[in-house]
Amino acid sequence: MSESSAPAVDNRRWVTLIVVGLAQLMVVLDATVVNIALPSAQADLGFSDGNRQWIVTAYSLAFGSLLLLGGRLSDLMGRKRTFVIGLIGFAVASALGGAAGSFELLVAARALQGVFGALLAPTALAVLTTTFVVPKERARAFGVFGAIAGAGGAVGLLLGGFLTEAFDWRWNLYINVVIAAIALVGALAFVPSVARSGPRPKLDLPGTVLVSAALFGLVYGFSNAETDGWDSPLTWGMLVGAGVLLVVFVLWQRRAAHPLLPLSIVLDRNRAAAYLSVLIAGAGMFGIFLFVTYYLQITLGYSPIQTGLSFLPMIGMLVLAAQLGTNLLVPRLGPKVMVPAGMTLGAIGMIWLTSLTASSEYVPNVLLPLMTLGFAMGTIMPAAMQTATLGVDRQFAGVASAMVNTSQQVGGSIGTAVLNTLAATAAADYLADHVPVTEAAGVQAAIASYATAYWWGAGFFAFGAVMSALLFRRRGQGLSLSDAQRAPMAEAEPSIVH
């Protein structure tokens, strides 16, 4: 059904936007809110530095590896039903994490949050797509949705600092129960059910199992390298197994009648460059939140809420750069200029952070590199995300969008695991070279470990700059970004059932 012939829109649509926005806020802030609470949680539950990345990785891995499945289940079960299940499941998982009395239960709860987050994120986008059928209203709704997604990181950092300092680290998880309960009431009352138009899609179960197992093996292998070392048979067994499963997944997608991820989507040169850019940027950035948080709290002695406030200028620059990029620069320059420029800025910001010492001050030593990194991310993401769905057939545009989220989350999981591994190794090497170990040596070992992570993060961005400059087509080759506005929508508009 075309938009011009679509039925009258539902008057509940703006309340639906609020409900969907709450769900999106919950999913986005959960990627950062726990970072602020990590030092307190580590002190309370007594887990090691080598294991701390699992609190972040468990959520990111489950979320990133299951996003494509979440989108498919939304089509199979109905969007409202999937949305409600996602909200309830996320709330239950958050309550379990908040009440966790051991490291293992906390990691399991975080993974369960990721599972239900993977249901919520694609379903929220699908609800917006089918609720807002008038082009101008659709643009406004997605603008608000994008603003919530962009501000979610800042809200998570601030909320995490406030809850940890004023109450307890466990409230960083309990707060999701409150948000989910409000969204659930709104979803049941205001989110419309929709009648299916077109044939019911079928689930590619073998493809789902293959890609989920491959991604799990990949991140588990990197994480295991920290605890058991790079010479561990389990480490390389998981990494090699993940590679084999990915190859089998690709071969299966070539012959599957209803592939989970049609290969034509990722084989396009521009879209491949966009997905890789999002993955590399995620790998470089997700780990940095972890290390800067530890530096501010442990080395400089910041309180949790001070740490949260310290990241605000970075988020502000990200939002500013994203607005400039979306409205002014991307339409004029295209991704071949914007993405490499952002990657270069990211490398500069990371190298700048390597100069931090135990006596550095927030202004200018921390503030300026964080603002540079924020502007870098805001420069990379709009161009990459617009290009990632450009020219995709209407029936696959949703899958292409899910691939953006998957790339970012998987990149974050890999980046967190790899950077934490390298940082822990650097700290151990420093202490081995400074025997007997004194308190001052311990402080310097931590500084050395952070600097190692920043240098590798700079390497990620430098590689991304070269890769994106080579892969993205020049303007005039293939589709232009202006064509994105005329590209068909992800799916036909179904009728709203009252």
Side-by-side strand order of the widest sheet: 1-2
How much strand? under 5%
Helical stretch count?
16
Listing every helix as H and every strand as E from the N terminus to the C terminus, the arrangement reads HHHHHHEHHHHHHHHHHE
First-to-last CA distance: 18 Å
Q: Could you tell me the number of beta strands?
A: 2
CATH topology of the largest domain: the name is: Growth Hormone, Chain: A
Specify the helix fraction band.
Answer: over 70%
Main pleated sheet: 2 strands, antiparallel
Poorly predicted ranges (pLDDT <50, ≥5 residues)? 1-9, 478-498
| CATH superfamily membership of the largest domain | MFS general substrate transporter like domains
- Rg from alpha-carbon coordinates: 22 Å
Query: What structural class should be given to the helix and strand makeup?
Result: mainly alpha
Shape type? globular
Q: Roughly what is the average pLDDT, rounded to an integer?
A: 81
Would you identify the CATH architecture of the largest domain? Up-down Bundle
Can you characterise this structure?
The protein has 498 residues and is mainly α. The protein folds into three domains: 202 residues, Growth Hormone, Chain: A (Up-down Bundle), CATH 1.20.1250; 54 residues; 231 residues, MFS general substrate transporter like domains (Growth Hormone, Chain: A), CATH 1.20.1250. It is 78% helix and 1% strand. It has 16 helices and two strands. Strands 1-2 form a two-stranded antiparallel ribbon.
